[in-house]
Amino acid sequence: MPPNREPLRAGRNIERSSGSGSPAGALAASASESEAVPTKFGRMVGQSPPMRALFALLQRAALCDATVLIDGETGTGKEVSALAVHENSARSAGPFVVVDCGAIPAQLLESELFGYERGAFTGAVAARTGAFEAADGGTIFLDEIGELSLDLQPKILRALEGRKIKRVGSNTYFPIDVRVIAATNRNLREEVAAKRFRSDLYYRLAVLHIKLPPLRERKSDLLALVEDFLLQQGVRDAAAAPIRSSDFIDMLGRYRWPGNVRQLRNYLERRVALGEAIAPPGSETSMPPPPANDDEKPIVSLDQPLKVAREEWNNVFEARYLDGLLSLHGNNVSAAARAAGVNRVHFYRLLRKHGLREQELDPLEDR
């Protein structure tokens, strides 16, 4: 292993301390597993059939060391799923390193993944450890793998197949002991057909292919998700009672939640913080409709200063615009950013601002 390692900054390093081969035996094991399928795996909860099936797949993934590709819409819990697999695997004592391939500019991503040697480029005054090195002995989670440039894809493929890497500016390969879990909200089969993603890399990633259900397909889990949120936040009975009510759960079930579980949790945090009923973000009641003609005017709050009222309207508009644009483009962040006329990194920051993506370390900070 190369000397002079330095801490990884752009990725997030989360460390955790710690049947029969016959067909009849396999069937018996399968039946036993189905009876024992939990309603919680890692930080994920759910009792619906899609989630029970998902937990069974994640359990099996944790028992082996194969590469995993997790497919799901924004906010469905791809990173939480990957972390749960890691924490229940033989690598649980090792590091869990997260790299968001979509949030880091393409020209910087190679050095973030593989590290670099001193003098590799202007400003490289000291050697630096990359994400693959930092994850040695554990798991590296490559989020938004579909955003990889075609130039970088062969290098990821080499790391997967040969389990060895080289730093930028070096001619020497060295071995790594890393499990790779990747995630995307794109349809990588379509990306392969469009020649935007290498087929050999796709098949190497999708040894185990797991698809996460969106919240709109598992609304029977809303009560379990609310109960888990209240438990995690330590909300007491008096404050929790209105949120546990059947009317409130029914109200939640009337919305599609394009941001899925992440959006739901952000909404519940706001609901608890404000202590009063509020409409879910992006719902029809969260902003007055535009006027139908020149004579009609939208309803505005006149008990607020102009600056505050305008900021609230701008925030509601941005949230609904981002939700709609993501839905229009099948949750493809790059395509949505292009349609919005902004660069992808800025679009990611807007998503995080409105709770449609998890708050993470800005890849351009601390540079």
Give an overview of the whole structure:
- Strand 2 and strand 3 (44-45) form a beta hairpin.
- With 367 residues, the chain is α/β, with parallel strands linked by helices.
- The chain has helices at 23-35, 49-62, 78-87, 106-114, 131-134, 153-162, 188-193, 199-205, 222-233, 237-244, 246-252, 260-274, 306-328, 333-340, 344-353, and strands spanning 12-15, 40-41, 44-45, 68-71, 95-100, 139-143, 164-165, 174-175, 179-184, 208-211.
- It starts with 11 loop residues before the first strand and ends in a 14-residue tail after the last helix.
- Helix 2 (49-62) crosses helix 3 (78-87) and helix 13 crosses helix 14.
- The radius of gyration is 23 Å and the shape is globular.
- The strands form 3 sheets. A 6-stranded mixed beta sheet has the order 1-5-6-9-4-10. Strands 2-3 form a two-stranded antiparallel sheet.
- The model is unreliable at 3-11, 14-35, 284-297 and 359-367 (pLDDT under 50).
In short:
The protein is of the alpha/beta class. It has three domains: 12-213, Rossmann fold (3-Layer(aba) Sandwich); 222-286; 299-360, Orthogonal Bundle (Arc Repressor Mutant, subunit A), CATH 1.10.10. The chain has helices at 23-35, 49-62, 78-87, 106-114, 131-134, 153-162, 188-193, 199-205, 222-233, 237-244, 246-252, 260-274, 306-328, 333-340, 344-353; strands at 12-15, 40-41, 44-45, 68-71, 95-100, 139-143, 164-165, 174-175, 179-184, 208-211.
